[in-house]
Amino acid sequence: MSSIAFIQELEDIVGDRLEHPSEGSYTASLAAAGVKRIAQKVGEEGVELALASVAGDKEEVVSEAADLIYHLLVLLNQQELSLADVAAELERRHTR
Predict the structure, then answer these.
(1) Statement: the pTM of the whole predicted model exceeds 0.85
(2) Rounded to whole angstroms, how far apart are CA atoms 78 and 40?
(3) Structural domain count of the chain
(4) What backbone torsions phi and psi does residue 2 show, to the nearest 5 degrees?
(5) Number of CB atoms found within 10 A of residue 74's CB
(6) Between helices 26-33 and 58-78, what is the axis angle to 10°?
(7) Taking 70 as the threshold, does the pLDDT of residue 1 lie above it?
(8) In which element (H, E) is residue 88 found?
């Protein structure tokens, strides 16, 4: 499996963990905290990614980007949206 394909698999894993929460699951506990907390995490990770980028630390940029994508997947799921919805919007913008 390619690394990019894993993002789709991760989206499925997040959905499954939200649909079937288990004790000790960070994803389930994040969802239980509500959309406001999830949105806060997306914002925090976005800021951390921006700061890592300015600092020029490529390993930290990758790490923070991964955190941002994960939290974005949780947020999208909570909004009953998916990466496919985001990709469709990007494609629509590209064809303008």
Answers:
(1) yes
(2) 14
(3) 1
(4) -75, 160
(5) 25
(6) 60
(7) no
(8) helix 83-94
Q: What is the pLDDT of residue 82?
A: 95
**Structure tokens given for 54:** 């300015």
Q: Residue 95: helix, strand or coil by DSSP?
A: coil
> Which DSSP string do the residues of 17-79 spell out, in sequence order?
HHHS--TT-HHHHHHHH-HHHHHHHHHHHHHHHHHHHHHT-HHHHHHHHHHHHHHHHHHHHHT
How distant is the alpha carbon of residue 78 from its chain centre? 11
Question: What pLDDT is stored for residue 37 in this prediction?
Answer: 98
> Can you give the C-alpha Rg of the chain in angstroms?
14
Whichever domain contains 87, its CATH number is 1.10.287.1080
> Domain limits at 18?
3-94
